[in-house]
Design goal:
Blueprint (H helix, E strand, L loop, with lengths): L7 E11 L1 H7 L8 H11 L16 E13 L5 E8 L11 H15 L2 E4 L2 H16 L4 H4 L20 E3 H5 L9 H7 L13 H6 L3 H25 L5 H19 L5 H13 L6
């Protein structure tokens, strides 16, 4: 179990797809080969078969297309602020959707604010692809990369054993092989919404169809699911008593109601509806 809940917590989730440019270079395909054909080739080379037509590919040959985070900040006066953010902010803006911009903005914001990062299967997946693709894209994130001389002198995003700058919830909850629960499975048994009509296997086809707006929405819901699971685990560990836990849940409801009323954010109201149906106010 984690030992700390910092005053600045970012619960994040990353979405990625096979990178057509990497595929063209690796397999020496003509530059005019359509993205869909390149990605199909990448899956085939990755071991695709009838049972698994879209196998998991090495993250280094994939591209980051969205990052979402729920941010919990405790101010000096004790006030708790909760917000939801995603990159790109405007999925319809092609400049914001450039991978370099997404990676640079996120990693440099983390480096500047030094939050406690929380993810699910993030140590082996999300953090690795962020680092690999940042290096591949020539991103500079010096403050993010800066490591303390001693574990107690600050967050170390590269040493999860001695620093709680980055918490991977699956490393606490998981086991080996089939004992390792997916985020959807763990959330569902807790009465927390998991997948809302979209699964991870659909992200690449959605991206090829130009549905980045829908992918960002899916990404935001995964970040919210991870946040609610983190809250449940923090309650289990005694960081919140029952009243505080109920107050934390109410902050999420207020966030969903307020943000879900904005244009293009209707999926947040769907998330709230599912959550309220599964989990009444208080401890589920």
């Amino acid at each position: 179990m984690f030992k700390t809940v910092e005053n600045n917590v970012w619960v994040f989730d990353v979405e990625w797809v096979p990178d057509p440019e990497a595929g063209r270079r690796l397999f020496q395909l003509p530059e005019d080969t359509p993205d869909a054909e390149v990605i199909q080739k990448m899956w085939e080379e990755g071991g695709a078969d009838k049972e698994n037509p879209m196998p998991y590919l090495k993250t280094t040959i994939c591209r980051v297309i969205s990052i979402a985070a729920v941010i919990r900040t405790v101010k000096e006066n004790g006030e708790i602020i909760l917000s939801l953010t995603a990159l790109p902010h405007d999925a319809a803006d092609s400049e914001q959707a450039v991978e370099f911009e997404i990676l640079s903005r996120f990693l440099n914001a983390v480096g500047e604010k030094r939050p406690q990062l929380v993810g699910y299967n993030s140590a082996k997946a999300d953090m690795k692809i962020l680092l690999q693709r940042a290096v591949a894209n020539g991103v500079q994130a010096a403050k993010f990369a800066k490591r303390p001389n001693k574990p107690w002198e600050g967050a170390d995003y590269f040493d999860s054993r001695n620093s709680e700058g980055h918490l991977d919830l699956i490393e606490i909850l998981g086991g080996f092989g089939k004992a390792n629960p997916s985020l959807n499975e763990m959330a569902t048994v807790c009465g927390i919404p998991g997948k809302l009509g979209v699964s991870g296997e659909e992200v690449a086809p959605m991206w090829l169809d130009g549905r980045l707006v829908d992918i960002v929405a899916y990404n935001e819901c995964d970040a919210l699911t991870t946040y609610l699971l983190w809250l449940r685990m923090a309650y289990f560990a005694g960081f919140f008593n029952q009243q505080q836990y109920s107050e934390e849940q109410e902050r999420v409801r207020n966030l969903l109601n307020k943000t879900g009323a904005l244009p293009g954010k209707e999926h947040l109201l769907e998330f709230l509806e599912r959550w309220e149906m599964w989990s009444p106010v208080g401890i589920a």
